[in-house]
């Protein structure tokens, strides 16, 4: 296969860029970031496609890395190749939303519809793993991976067995190992062990179910017995005579009503006694009744009122007389002073003044003084006479008033009253007695009727109470205590007896209820446990059937696993045997190529079935990791070239070298380039950012196609 022309329509930094490649060596030069790795990745993408990665792998996603810089939405290109004389054009659109590809036969113009397997056949058996591990060599990435081991194993197996490429050993081994994993994943042994445990557990549950069923029957019997005992207790002489225990309980519960009736009866008797006392009191009052005395008392009151009016009139007359006589007396006294004072004073003064001086004036003054004294004496006599008349008049008034008071006192004494108020009270009391006498007669009649009703009511209560006492207290035919002997003390004793009976019954019923509840809980628990075991029998039968099936399957699976393991061992042994013959040829090719590159320093190379390399050194073989990094890169370079020529045919596949000589010195670079130009047929594409390769090829006059990416950008 030869790459003829690359058209990078929109890929990475390139837009509508074409590169024409020739047979032999093509040296593509470009400075850093000129796009060498982009072109290298474009070739791989055109041959095998580019898938967008997801998850963690997306960080190093080739799809994202080479998205077009300038023309978003267009992500495509084409590649012309020549294979076995045919010219083929591969066209790919990498855009994820419109991804497609087409393969055109340029000689006929027909579009080829090829499956991935047919495409690998078109490429001469080259797969993406083969491409990555053989013909495509990047800087510091010459080491191969496990995919190449599988490719080589398939190749040498087909080469030895059928001389064709129809047998895929890796796929066969993978199929057998997957089949073995599938059979082992059935875990029949663990399933059988688990099933044995389940069957054992199921048998235990069946035994437990039988045991629980017996316990449930016994529990039901106990529940029935306790229920009977609750409804009809034994060994009690007081309620044996009742038709049912509930009747006795009802009788006990009736006591508060009977007690209330007893209290009513007691109250009725008390009311009867009270009525009797009231009737006696009424009779006494009848005997005490004195007849109609209110008229006489009223007359006496009227007499008193007349006397009071008479007394009041006299007192008013006396008061008026006293006021009038006092006023007149006071006026006379004033006149006595006023009429006699001025003449007397004038006469006395004149007598003193004119004594011995003027007898006439003195005589006049003496006469005037005498006149004043005479007037004074006249008025004084008049005052005394008037005062005497007043006293006589007042004496008459007092006598009349005393007579009135005496009459009033006689009236009060006659009526047996201390004063007028008491007389009024007596009169009111007499009126009340006269008014209530008729009422007392009616009240007596009412009391007598009430007494009859109470006796009738008592006659209805007493037998009921005595019948109740008889039922409660008399366990056999015995005389009942007469009711008239029944008092509060005996009623309290009866109440205490009933309380004890109820307490005894309550305690027994509580104990019975507790025991019955325990039994019922146990019964429900047993039922629940039996319900949980209901499906056990069916499950046990299914498990037993399944157990038999699994034993048969295990026998079959064991036979299959033995056959698979025998097949795997046979194929692996056959692969090792085949490798021994193929390996010698691979060892020779790698040794020759390594000798060319290293100037014949390393000529004895051994490669095992896993493509691990050992180097012959002084009668011994050392591991490759003992050598320098550059030498290791050269050994893997030789291994890739050798495997490519062996698997795909010498010179049939192009070799792509992306700065893979970075760790080579000039001498070994010259040896590698000389081998590629003279010792191997086929196309070689070298990507470099150095001029060393060009200088060496020019120095050796090698024929090569030079492409300067910087000059054509």
Automatic annotation (TrEMBL):
The chain crosses the membrane at residues 360-379. The keyword Transmembrane helix applies. Residues 1-201 form the YhaN AAA domain. Keywords: Coiled coil, Membrane, Transmembrane, Transmembrane helix. Residues 178-205, 258-324, 430-457, 491-567 form a coiled coil. InterPro entries: P-loop_NTPase, YhaN_AAA. SUPFAM superfamilies: P-loop containing nucleoside triphosphate hydrolases (SSF52540). The keyword Lipid metabolism does not apply. This is AAA family ATPase. The lineage of its organism: Bacteria, Bacillati, Bacillota, Clostridia, Lachnospirales.
